[in-house]
Design brief:
By secondary structure, this protein is of the alpha+beta class. The chain has helices at about 5-15, 35-45, 75, 90-100, 135-145, 160, 170-175, 180-190, 190-195, 200-205, 205-225, 255-265, 270-285, 330-345, 350-365, 365-380, 445-460, 470-480, and strands at about 1-5, 20-30, 55, 65, 75-80, 110-115, 125-130, 145, 245-250, 250-255, 295-305, 320-325, 385-390, 395, 400-410, 415-425, 425-435. The longest helix has 23 residues, at about 205-225.
């Protein structure tokens, strides 16, 4: 048996009937897929990671991984057909059903469903428990299943490429993640660290001063996170049910998003989050909420804490930050610049390291301790928002070209809404997963996403912006955007 890391243990124990801890994804393919070839690809590449042959076992003394001696690949890679028209609505219904159904805990916590009769091409629905790995790692692992051409045949993954490498053995990893590692040390191991280096502190008084400064910064971030008030009540928050609904939009052209970001002086991420915020605002207004009554809400945003080359190590190596979405702003440009400012503030903080440390502490303690802490933290946000960069080249799986990729991360505690953004091969995909009791039709949010992006595209073409403006210039441009005769354009 192999001990499970404390953070992975926290994600294992985080599961509840109202929020299953699965990452759910959909890949739409262009050509028919040979099932036997798919099985061979999964066996030789996916199962090269032994984690996918192991079951997760929890006990009062801690969680661990155990090899499944009765592993059956066909039980994990299944063929399935859609009823009726087998169109987008039917596929969304299937994905929602699977996202609402827990994985078999007696088996390794993952499963693929090959949908062979979807009208737009074969689709592969993937479910993997969050305790195995985070989204960044799983995207990289999934890429090991793919090829750069349809002629490539399954072969065993290169051991050197996918070998396990401990983070502490890599000086590159240490250098890139020093702030995050400092945060984790002070949250979970400060006592041991100080004892181990006690003599050094005596010999080098400056070292003790540096630790004191770091500790003060970490404690300040922790205090800030815990002192945040709960998010305001909206129809997006409330008592959760046990059924999920999913929807995803037709993709945007990544080059257009980059052009808007460059013209308006913001990042691609800022543009996409601003469009998401506008879509949420329009959805609430369409449901009858008064525009003047809308308040800003928070999203928990996962922040990767490791370089991509270490993603194949699996496990969870990310923290969470609380991003305030400017839902109360009725001007698209103002929303964009507020998102930009708030993202810059979060990038300069250690909030992600602190939450990673909190999850480590929760994984050390009993399950009973975890629920009240998660309830406390999840009450401070309304949605989970994640943006994962995928490969920007065409890929093939078992000889079939990938047309679309989409995934949804799980929500935790009292959060009932998840928003996912994924880029692949020059396109940006946007998806929503929701608690059916709160948001029975997430398509209502989806259909607002493209119009909100189009507003930013229009402003980028109409306004004389050259790079990110200063605050006074931004206020002037916002007034100028309103003077363009936007009227109902602002929302």
């Amino acid at each position: 048996m192999e001990p499970m890391s404390k953070v992975d243990t926290a994600w294992l124990r985080m599961e509840q009937a109202t929020n299953l801890m699965m990452i759910t994804g959909v890949i739409v393919l262009q050509e028919d897929v040979d099932y036997e070839r798919l099985l061979q690809t999964v066996e030789q590449r996916f199962l090269a990671f032994r984690r996918f042959r192991q079951t997760a076992v929890d006990s009062p003394s801690g969680a661990h991984w155990r090899m499944d001696e009765d592993f059956d690949l066909r039980a994990h890679v299944r063929r399935i057909g859609l009823p009726g028209k087998a169109d987008r609505a039917e596929l969304e219904s299937l994905v929602a059903e699977l996202a609402s159904s827990s994985l078999d805990k007696a088996r390794p916590l993952w499963q693929f469903h090959l949908v062979e009769n979807y009208v737009e091409g074969p689709a592969l629905v993937c479910r993997i428990h969050h305790c195995i790995a985070d989204g960044i790692a799983l995207v990289q692992v999934f890429l090991s299943l793919t090829d750069d051409s349809p002629e490539s045949r399954p072969c065993v993954a290169e051991p050197k490429q996918w070998s396990q490498r401990r983070a502490e053995e890599s000086p590159v990893f240490q250098r890139l993640l020093e702030p995050a590692r400092d945060g984790l040390d002070f949250v979970t191991h400060v006592g041991q660290r100080l004892l181990a280096e006690g003599q050094k502190i005596i010999d080098e008084p400056a070292r003790a001063g540096r630790y004191a400064v770091e500790a003060a910064e970490i404690l300040r971030e922790l205090g800030h996170s815990l002192s945040l008030p709960d998010d305001p009540p909206t129809r997006l928050k409330g008592r959760l049910g046990v059924r999920k609904q999913v929807a995803w939009a037709k993709p945007l052209a990544l080059e257009e998003v980059k052009a808007v970001g460059k013209a308006l002086g913001c990042t691609v991420n800022d543009v996409l989050i601003a469009a998401v915020t506008g879509a949420l605002r329009r959805y609430l207004i369409s449901c009858g909420d008064a525009p003047s009554a809308l308040q800003d809400i928070r999203a928990t945003v996962p922040v990767n804490l490791r370089p991509l080359e270490h993603a194949p190590e699996l496990g969870n190596h990310f923290g969470l930050v609380f991003l305030s979405l400017p839902l109360g702003s009725d001007n698209p440009l103002e929303r964009l610049y507020r998102v930009n400012e708030r993202m810059d503030e979060l990038k300069a903080s250690r909030q992600a390291a602190v939450t990673f440390g909190v999850l480590s502490v929760l994984g050390m303690g009993p399950s009973a301790l975890q629920k009240p802490v998660l309830e406390l933290l999840s009450g401070k946000a309304t949605t989970v928002l994640t943006n994962v960069p995928g490969p920007q080249r065409p890929l093939w799986l078992a000889g079939s070209r990938l047309k679309e990729m989409m995934f949804w991360v799980p929500q935790n505690g009292k959060i009932g809404l998840g928003i996912s953004i994924l880029s692949y091969n020059g396109q940006v995909f946007f998806g929503v997963i929701s608690d059916r009791r709160l948001v029975p039709d997430p398509g209502g949010i989806i259909q607002q996403f493209h119009p909100e992006f189009e507003k930013l595209l229009y402003l980028a073409l109409m306004l004389p912006i050259r790079g990110r403006p200063h605050t006074s210039e931004a206020e002037f441009l916002i007034r100028q955007s309103e003077a363009l005769g936007l009227g109902g354009f602002a929302s």
